[in-house]
Amino acid sequence: MKSYWYKEPWFWFVIFFPAISVVAGVSTFIVFQNNQPDMVSDDYYKDGKKINQDLTKYHEALARNITFTLKFEDGFAVFMPATGDMKENEALNISFFHVTLAKHDISVLATAFGDGSYRVEIPADMLQGKWRVRAESFDNKWRVQEYVQYPNTSVIKLDGEQD
Predict the structure, then answer these.
(1) Among 83, 100, 137, 140, which residue's CB has the most CB atoms within a 10 Å radius?
(2) Do residues 77 and 133 make contact, with C-beta atoms less than 8 angstroms apart?
(3) Spatial distance between the Cα atoms of 57 and 95, rounded to a whole number of angstroms
């Protein structure tokens, strides 16, 4: 009596584990390709030089004693100038950077309201968690930033000091 190879249980037992490994490897590769990290840089030296140039903006904000208060209310982030030597009602570049997912970053050019505050609309689908909030002069002379937890009900101080 002749037995066919596909009816043998040992054949399927031997093939099962390599087949599972191939399926797991392909699915891992697909998941990795769809969720690549955003924090990897190709040129660390050039990035380091940019960081040193950016530090001068923080030092300028410290020299001018520029600080802001930030409060999240009614779907807006409200920035209010607290102290410092800055042009009255000048436009600001305001940015929200998610700490790990660059595709969720927000950058807007904000103009002052009548009360001197700057309001940035927060998207309804904004991720909860840690964000880096930055306010920068329109002419890129100074910059203040702070890491904040969103959502947050307290008043947050933004200044030129690096944490």
Answers:
(1) 137
(2) yes
(3) 15
**What is the spatial distance between Cα 117 and Cα 26, in angstroms, rounded to a whole number?**
52
3-state helix, strand, coil in the chain (%, to 5): 35, 35, 35
Which of 144, 155, 139 is closest to 72 using CA atoms? 155
User: Residue 13 half-sphere exposure, CB side, CA atoms within 13 Å?
Assistant: 3
Distance CA 90, CA 110 (A): 9
Q: How far apart are CA 108 and CA 122, in angstroms?
A: 11
C-alpha distances (whole Å) from 6 to each of 3, 9, 11, 20, 75 are 9, 8, 7, 18, 63
CA-based max dimension of the chain: 97
pTM of the model: 0.67
94, pLDDT greater than 60: yes
Length in residues, the chain: 163
Count of CB atoms situated within 10 Å of the CB of 10 = 7
* Separation CA 134–CA 94 (nearest Å): 6
For residue 41, the model assigns a pLDDT of: 63
